[in-house]
Amino acid sequence: MGTLVTLDLPAGSPVAELPWVITIGSLGDEEDWEPVVCGPYERAHALALAQAVVADEQLMAVVEPLLPRPDAEAIRDEIDLARAAVETPDDEDFEDEYETRRVRPGRPPTEAEVREGWTRIAARLTTV
After folding, report:
1. What is the structure's pLDDT at 32?
2. What number of CA atoms fall less than 13 Å from residue 123's CA on the CB side?
3. 53-109 pLDDT tens trace
4. Which stretches does the entry tag as region Disordered (predicted)?
5. In this structure, are residues 50 and 59 in contact, taking their beta carbons and an 8 Å threshold?
6. In this structure, is residue 25 part of a structural domain?
7. Domain of 68?
8. Which of 45, 48, 60, 76 falls 20 to 30 Å from 36 in CA-CA distance?
């Protein structure tokens, strides 16, 4: 059984509406391979796909939002915000911000559902 890690978002968070990616890697130190990054997906699709992939294998999936930024200055602003938010990392902060859970197989979205999600993501990205 694998592990799924994602942000613990409050209800109604605008972050949930961003496109999301899945990074899948080895859960232990026994395997040494480069993680696989897939997406973008809508959050619900990303979570369901990650669960389906890691449920029966010793893999870790990290589901996180993409931050579409239109230029280098906007990216620098995000970096500055991230740097300013870091005080002293400790395990308690990690647990407050992230949700880690063991997963059971569920119904992943169909290819058609994922493609419909991509259409919605493209529409959101082009209207920002």
Report:
1. 85
2. 8
3. 999 899 999 999 998 888 899 999 989 988 888 765 555 554 555 555 555 557 888
4. 88-115
5. no
6. yes
7. 3-112
8. 76
Strand partners, 3: 60, 102
**What DSSP assignment string belongs to 8-34?**
-PPTT-GGGGS-EEEEEEESSSS----
Residue 48 clears pLDDT 90, i.e. is over it: yes
Task: Please report whether residue 121 resides in a domain.
Answer: no
Alpha carbons 17 and 62: distance in angstroms, whole number: 17
Instruction: Tell me whether residue 87 is exposed, middle or buried, using C-beta atoms within 10 angstroms of its C-beta: 0 to 12, 13 to 18, 19 or more.
Output: exposed
According to DSSP, the residues that pair with 37 across neighbouring strands are 23
Residue identified by tokens 């696989």 is 36
Domain membership flag for residue 43: yes
C-beta contacts of 75-83 below 8 A and 24+ residues apart: none
Say if residues 40 and 64 touch (Cβ distance below 8 Å).
Answer: no
Are 41 and 21 within 8 A, CB to CB? yes
